[in-house]
Amino acid sequence: MNKIPVNVIKTHPALPDLSYTTSGSAGFNLPVFPENFLTSLEASASLDDLGGEIIPPDEHRRYTSGYKIQLAGQSEVMLVLPRSGLGSAGCVLKNLVGVIDQDYQGELFITLWNTGSKPLVVNFGKIFFQALIVPCFQGDFAYMKTFPQPSERGERGHGQATADLLGR
After folding, report:
1. 143 lies in a domain?
2. Which parts of the chain fold into alpha helices (H)?
3. Can you tell me the distance from the alpha carbon of 66 to that of 50, in angstroms, rounded to the nearest whole number?
């Protein structure tokens, strides 16, 4: 896989180095901690057995990853997503996908939302989300009265392709 420089600041010295699980992993894992939790710990404190909390059904809580990340490239964006196995437990990000702009340099926060019917146990320091770095382009907008090339779809609306497949 191609690599770009990523600058990282740990808000606590005991945080592990960020890494990919395998050489084919698209995303790197990020843990969850309560907001301001890591800054209140002594530098020598261990991050083992930090406890956790429960998010009741249809409630959400905001957490920090403990990392500040700066994309050092010029045309990338970072997407933050829940780990794939968490969806079956009803765990999603409140905004579904986090978009971290290329010029953001702050701490990574997420809001976990329990959409399931059972309480969700959140153990602090455990992996609940992942980040992917992907190419990003900005549009160079050209304003006109009509498009120079008509498309096969034209102005048929949102979901029309699915409706066509289903014979609606």
Report:
1. no
2. 37-40, 160-165
3. 14
Which SS3 state, helix, strand or coil, does residue 58 take? Answer: coil
SS3 63: strand
165, part of any domain? no
For range 97-102, the mean pLDDT: 91
Percent of the chain with pLDDT over 70: 95
Q: Residue 51: which CATH number?
A: 2.70.40.10
Helices (H), 25-112: 37-40
pTM (predicted TM-score): 0.82
Please report where in the chains the tokens 């549009």 appear, as a residue.
139
CA 150 to chain centre: 36
Domain, as residue range, for 57: 6-136
